[in-house]
Amino acid sequence: RSINGDLLIYGLNQHKEKTGLLQTVRRIAVYPPTAQHEVSADISEAINKAEDDIDSLLIEYKASSDEGRAVIDSAEIKLLAGARVSADK
C-alpha cells in the first residue's frame, strides 16, 4: 500500500494569509502510509518566486491512497533572511 501525491508550496504573508501557489513538486510516493517519513525536495523555485511580503512558506502534501481517500498534511516553514540569498546562488 502506498500514497502518491504532490507537494504544493504557497507563500504566507505576515497575517498568515495564502498569497498564491509558488511551486508544485509532483509525484512524491510514501511507503507505507502509516509510518513517519522524511522527504527531500528542491524548493528554490518557491523561494526565488517569493515576494518581499512573504513571511513563510506553507507546504501541503496532497495525495490519495490506493483506496482513493484524500490525504492532506501540511507544514509551515519560516523564511529566514539568508534563505533568499542562498537560493539565488
Task: Outline the structure in words.
- By secondary structure, the chain is of the alpha+beta class.
- It has one domain (3-88).
- 16% of the residues lie in helices and 47% in strands.
- The chain is built from 2 helices and 4 strands.
- The chain has helices spanning 44-49, 81-88; strands at residues 3-12, 18-30, 56-65, 70-78.
- Strands 2-1-3-4 form a 4-stranded antiparallel sheet.
- The termini are far apart.
- The relative contact order is 0.28.
List the helices and strands and how they pair.
Blueprint: E1 3-12, E2 18-30, H1 44-49, E3 56-65, E4 70-78, H2 81-88
Largest sheet: 4 strands, antiparallel
Care to count the β-strands? 4
Could you tell me the radius of gyration in angstroms? 14 Å
The helical percent reads 10-25%
Short overview:
Helix content is 16%, strand content 47%. It is an alpha+beta fold and 89 residues long.
Descriptors:
89 residues; alpha+beta; four-stranded antiparallel sheet; 4 strands; 16% helix; elongated
